[in-house]
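Listing S7. Sequence submitted for prediction.
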Amino acid sequence: MKSLSVVLWTLAGFVAAQEVSPTPTTCTVDTNATYPKSPKLPDPFLLADGKRLATKDEWACKRAEIRDQIQRYELGPKPPKPTVSATASSGKITIVSSEGGKSMSFAVSIKLPSGTGPFPAVIAYEGTSIPVPAGVATITYPNHEVAADDPRGKGKFYDLYGSTHTAGGLIAWAWGVSRVIDALEQLGPESTKIDVKRLAVTGCSRNGKGALIASAFDDRIALAIPQEGGSGGPGCWRIVADIKKNGTKTEDATQIVNGDSWFATAFSTYAPDTTVLPYDHHMLMALVAPRGLLVIENSGIDYLGPISTYGCSVGAHMVYESLGVKDNFGVSQASHGNSHCSMPSSQNPEVAAFFNKFLLGQADVATEVIKTDGKFTWFAGQWIDWAVQTLS
């Protein structure tokens, strides 16, 4: 009999009742491991000890390693689940989190479709700018109440854990999404009319970064649709640094750590030379596998780093393919100038397909898409010196 900690695979993605699947007892995450600098995107199929992955079960070990690395180097730690209580009333859920003698609360609003439910739902960072199909509820999440962009250490997360907590805003927002899911589980569909096994998360710009990170750090989310997240989201640090060096006006790690407090203060040590990182964001996106992930980007805004988000997504798709679920990943880039967070209708079919497959139960919908209209040339060999693996 296999360990209960082993990843469970289905056509639609991950079957989980836990925030994060526990690390198998056969895995050891070496927090003292050192890594050589790598100008290329790091190999997602190598463990810190040099062992190459051979099975899907071993991917659980690599996921634990990547999650540890991203928290240590970039995001800061996501605290474990506190004591959570929740109440539902008049289209609103109020969530109270308690830890160490302190408590804080925030509320989300729910817009339900007509009918009796229970309904699938999308948790939308401060509302959604993507089309939500009929039959899917929208839960509006006030992430900036949980953690402010600026100054650092402000917001209800820090009221609970202290203003000097080392988590940046993005992982604090992810922590808040997990508390929303806790509340939905606790209240049940009788009170909320929400099917907690069919949840998506979305957001645009900084909130797109947030939606991706929330999904990477909570296995209960069936589908992630980050929109125009750019650098710090689906963009790879190494690629965006290279295109900025070549004159493109884009946001790189050095700039981003000197702006809003989305990242841990520790990241400022690594931002000037991200080749020292043992991961990049192709591996952040791979943490969502085998669940659904659709990356929506605007190829017409240089600041978002279109080459970076496209190339990084190609790397993530290779992991999905190695895990036997390449249809569960998509990237769609469409140019619509400087109209940030205003998605063109040409991307609607991809969004609808992913909702249909992962939230509405239409398993035969085609969802594999790798598409860009960007005016650039992508040379995979410049960044990727590893190949799709056959994992048993």
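Caption to Listing S7: primary sequence and predicted structure tokens for the chain studied. Residues 1-17 have pLDDT under 50 and may be disordered. The chain has 13 helices and twelve strands.
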